Amino acid sequence: MPNQTIKLGGGLRQDADVITVMKAGRLRFLKPNKYWVESSQKRYVPRVDDNVLGIVVDTKADNFLVDIKGPAIAFLPVLAFEGGTRRNIPKFEAGTLVYVRVVKANPGTNPELSCTDASGKAAEFGPLKDGFMFECSTGLSRMMLSSPTCPVLEEFGKKLSFEVAVGLNGRVWVNAASPATVIVVSNAIMKSESLSSTQQRIMARKLLEKVQ
Amino acid sequence: MEIDRIDGRSPNQLRPLACSRGILNRAHGSASWSQGDTKVLAAVYGPKAGTKKNENPERACIEVIWKPKTGQSGKQEKEYEMILKRTLQSICILTINPNTTTSIIIQVVQDDGSLLPCAINAACAALVDAGIPLKHLAVSICCCLASSGYVILDPTKQEEEVSVFL
């Protein structure tokens, strides 16, 4: 192979001259030169620009301490909100669920989060009220966020109306008008991890028949 | 000269192996490994923030807890924990997540000989299931010296008891 610069993503590591793999998973390749290992885990490895669901654990003077299922606890600066100033700091109690974006993620330090998108707008980040949150694997969250739309969500979306927030760290939040809808959607998502797309559609249709 | 093992195996033959991953719901990684009748369950939690007091904060720390099938943890269990900890420290990449602790809990379900190698294999499978970065995979096997002077692999509990050296 001629001289090429290859970018190594997650799961691969360079040891002097040899590239070795660190995790079990599928090796993926994106042209022109990106390689990475895609694996599905229960724990999350923080990466920049990921949208995750965090739970507020504590409040400090400048930051909220937020748990995002990673090796270290993450900081959410008190001012990282749209139109945030020292006078209107939001009050988050311990246990609040927040939808945030990862801004900084370096191996030795605590990750930093933000409730605004890159241009400073709120864009649906922030606390999530009501609804039900459950945990799943990172592979399932990635599948739900991929395009074309995940079959389970599509089938349910045709008949039921609900809101869903998917965090790439393996947390999903579902909200709907009636608890029955929330339960059926959550259970369907949890079961769809190992099913192919046709199987997911069949399962979604069967569940819809039972509900209606 | 053919050596007669109680279950009819040849000296180099292993017992049937079985492994399942992802069996525990709450653990971040789990695996069960069985060699014949010996069965060990391994669970991995982590990486979690913070290391113990004596450990180097520049590297990740590995903590092993060995739970015997019955009775209290004694010196034998502490020895197994130390051996496992050293083995796993050599295969894990410790510099990736500094200042974190990964806990590995080994539960002996059934002991029919060759217990420590079975536990090492189970712990390695559980680490892979949890997605902890590893340099290599660890594989281990037990061999013992029978009284007739032959080296046999993967002994059962009976063979271990009559062996001269393990």
TrEMBL record, chain A:
InterPro entries named in the record: Exosome_RNA_bind1/RRP40/RRP4, KH_dom_type_1, KH_dom_type_1_sf, NA-bd_OB-fold, RRP40_KH-I, Rrp40_N_euk, Rrp40_S1
GO BP of this protein: CUT catabolic process; exonucleolytic trimming to generate mature 3'-end of 5.8S rRNA from tricistronic rRNA transcript (SSU-rRNA, 5.8S rRNA, LSU-rRNA); nuclear polyadenylation-dependent rRNA catabolic process; poly(A)-dependent snoRNA 3'-end processing; TRAMP-dependent tRNA surveillance pathway; U4 snRNA 3'-end processing
Chain ranges of the K Homology domain: 131-179
Residue ranges annotated for the Exosome complex exonuclease Rrp40 N-terminal domain, each copy included: 6-43
A single GO cellular-component term on record: nuclear exosome (RNase complex)
Parts forming coiled coils: none
Keywords: Cytoplasm, Exosome, Nucleus, RNA-binding, rRNA processing
Subcellular location: Cytoplasm; Nucleus, Nucleolus
CDD domains listed in its UniProt record: KH-I_Rrp40, S1_Rrp40
Tagged with keyword Cytoplasm: yes
A GO term for molecular function: RNA binding
Main location: cytoplasm
Cited SUPFAM superfamilies: Eukaryotic type KH-domain (KH-domain type I) (SSF54791), Nucleic acid-binding proteins (SSF50249), Ribosomal L27 protein-like (SSF110324)
Presence of keyword rRNA processing: yes
PANTHER family: EXOSOME COMPLEX COMPONENT RRP40 (PTHR21321:SF1), PNAS-3 RELATED (PTHR21321)
Family: Belongs to the RRP40 family.
Protein name in the entry: Ribosomal RNA-processing protein 40
Organism of derivation: Punica granatum (Pomegranate)
Classification of source organism: Eukaryota, Viridiplantae, Streptophyta, Embryophyta, Tracheophyta
Gene symbol of the encoding locus: LOC116215262
From TrEMBL, chain B:
Entry GO MF terms: RNA binding
One GO cellular component term: nucleolus
Top-level taxon in the UniProt lineage: Eukaryota
Main location: nucleus
Cellular localisation: Nucleus
Keywords attached to this entry: Exosome, Nucleus, rRNA processing
UniProt key word Nucleus: yes
GO biological process, one term: rRNA processing
All copies of domain Exoribonuclease phosphorolytic, residue ranges: 13-133
Similarity remark: Belongs to the RNase PH family.
Protein's recorded name: Exoribonuclease phosphorolytic domain-containing protein
Organism field: Punica granatum (Pomegranate)
Lineage: Eukaryota, Viridiplantae, Streptophyta, Embryophyta, Tracheophyta
